[in-house]
Amino acid sequence: MSRRLPTLLCTALFLNACGVGESDFAGEAMESRAMEPPPPAAALASRSAEAMVLQDEGGAATPDVAQPPEWRHLIRSGHLRIEVSSLDASLEAVQSMAESAGGYLARSSTRESGNGARSADLMLRIPAPEFDGVVAALANVGRVTAESVNVVDVSRDYVDIETRLAVREQTVERLRQLARDGGGLEDLLAIERELGRALEQLESLKGQLLYYDRRIAESDLEITLFEPGAVISDGAFQPLREAWREAAGVFARSLASILYVAVFLAPWVLLAGLVGWAVRVLWVRRRRRAAE
Q: Where in the numbering of this chain does the DUF4349 domain appear (predicted)?
């Protein structure tokens, strides 16, 4: 067993080191397939089943393309600006709408302009399957003045993390098997070090995958509700405020530059003054001696 342990340990260490470059390897493999991430085996089988042709009444074969691929992982977010007649009633309606869809209100803030018109900024977390329905239903709250939806495809990163996670799990299991087989004290200490490093990397990958799962499952929806006159009143002098802040920043940076220059030149000016005074004293003394 002691003769096989170094060989097995080297094999496990090699698998552990492969984790460093496995991301690049996965990226190159996906780039060679038209820049699109390869689906997992189970998802590919499901995709193939969905791609089975449906026989219509005339017997013609038509592919089923209504459903998107299950292996694609998308993170969706959106932003709406809605003009409402009553801010309080609209806030209750939006919160109730989010809860009915299985979501929740994650953040909210309200403000009031000089003419009494109010506005509010909301952040909703909506289950991804209900996102489109909630966006459409929000049109009943008031007049939608702006709408934007952003979709980010993270399938490439997701599959890359899954691949690295599988390799890391195999490495951990192999190192644990080596530890159970036993060996010399030096070999066991080396195995424990590599096992600790592999476990740390494994937990990090699990955390990244969990983060993606949560972002994919829940969509962020930012909503700005405002009463008539609130946005105009609040933003009318915004360019002047921004110009004042920029001018103040330029003035502060100018004073700082002058201070830096003064501090830098002060000792040299003092030194030059001392040298000039010494030269003047010597010159006066020489003239007196020459006159005598």
A: 72-280
